[in-house]
Design goal:
Layout lengths: L15 E5 L10 E4 L17 E4 L4 E6 L2 E6 L3 E4 L5 E2 L3
């Protein structure tokens, strides 16, 4: 496994941009960059094999994490452990 560098000038297209694949890190980590329009997020779901983290760049995101509702404005980091139900309404 070697270093992986992506510059902002690279042509990475699509609503979900894969910045680091799991196989680039011995399946320890992956990273995506995504713009989530209001009302576009996935329905309530659970990841059984991996945790998930979100860093809010602008606007605000509201999540349902298990039974809790949490919101984060720009600069907020939200960590969701595996096996925790997640609703991200966008």
């Amino acid at each position: 496994m070697g270093a992986v560098v992506h510059t902002s000038a690279e042509d990475i297209k699509g609503p979900i941009r894969l910045r680091l694949r799991g196989d680039d890190s011995d399946e320890a980590f992956s990273l995506v960059d995504e713009v989530i329009p209001p009302g576009y997020g996935p329905p309530l779901h659970v990841h059984l094999s991996f945790a998930e983290g979100f860093y809010v760049l602008e606007c605000q995101l509201t999540f349902q994490l298990g039974d809790d509702i949490v919101s984060g404005a720009a600069g907020t980091w939200i960590y969701v452990p595996k096996d925790v139900p997640l609703l991200d309404p966008g």
